Amino acid sequence: MEKSIKYIQISDEIKNKILSGILKPNEMLSSENQLAAEYNVSRVTIRKALMRLIDEGYLFSVPGKGTFVDYFNKNIYRIPLSLESILKSPYDGETLIGSKIINPDIDMVYHLQIAPKEKVISIEWLLSIENNPVVYDIKYIPFFPALPIGEIDLKYSSLSRILSSKFNLRDLQEEIAIECVCPNDKICRYLGMNFDSNEAVILLNKFIYDRENNPVGWSLNYIRSDYCTLKAEFQC
């Protein structure tokens, strides 16, 4: 079984244990090493599965302690809005376009609530499925001296995962907006689309705030519409 699919199978199995009540709210999961041995996969695969569930609100992580089941109301519709849950199939290619420290434009100043003279970390990735580019991902993070910038280039990570090196994930709040937009020429080139076709893409906007409600990160995922889907889950 391909590793990119295996981590989704593992996260779905853990999610089912949460939804069925086998894993209770606030219960601590086994360690990454124990889960890796249980599922016969690497720690990287386990970490990816857990981060998917953290992004979807089923788990939370406490640095130095472990990963725990989060509280949630089962009697509501849940629409998972992590990138992995929107894509029809798992991405299997990750290409770093670049990461750099930049001066913010007016949108960054507004959304990150920073001064125009402050610096911002910009990280761009292109994700693909069977060598077809499907997601142009760009993240903006206010420059924090403690943030391990050198490690950002090593592998693709969610915005929450990057911020976990400075913040307790339990203290972070997410605001997500999804819309259809017409991509500009740059995005069309990255996604292999014809700019003149006026074909829309799905834009997944994610804003992350600390416990004082200060914005600490902003990510934009431009997703080719023919590779994504939305579905709601209902548990009663």
TrEMBL record:
<dbReference type="GO" id="GO:0003677">
    <property type="term" value="F:DNA binding"/>
</dbReference>
<dbReference type="InterPro" id="IPR028978">
    <property type="entry name" value="Chorismate_lyase_/UTRA_dom_sf"/>
</dbReference>
<keyword id="KW-0804">Transcription</keyword>
<feature type="domain" description="HTH gntR-type">
    <location>
        <begin position="4"/>
        <end position="72"/>
    </location>
</feature>
<dbReference type="InterPro" id="IPR036390">
    <property type="entry name" value="WH_DNA-bd_sf"/>
</dbReference>
<dbReference type="InterPro" id="IPR000524">
    <property type="entry name" value="Tscrpt_reg_HTH_GntR"/>
</dbReference>
<keyword id="KW-0238">DNA-binding</keyword>
<dbReference type="GO" id="GO:0045892">
    <property type="term" value="P:negative regulation of DNA-templated transcription"/>
</dbReference>
<dbReference type="InterPro" id="IPR036388">
    <property type="entry name" value="WH-like_DNA-bd_sf"/>
</dbReference>
<keyword id="KW-0805">Transcription regulation</keyword>
<dbReference type="InterPro" id="IPR011663">
    <property type="entry name" value="UTRA"/>
</dbReference>
<dbReference type="Pfam" id="PF00392">
    <property type="entry name" value="GntR"/>
</dbReference>
<dbReference type="Pfam" id="PF07702">
    <property type="entry name" value="UTRA"/>
</dbReference>
<dbReference type="InterPro" id="IPR050679">
    <property type="entry name" value="Bact_HTH_transcr_reg"/>
</dbReference>
<protein>
    <submittedName>
        <fullName>GntR family transcriptional regulator</fullName>
    </submittedName>
</protein>
<dbReference type="GO" id="GO:0003700">
    <property type="term" value="F:DNA-binding transcription factor activity"/>
</dbReference>
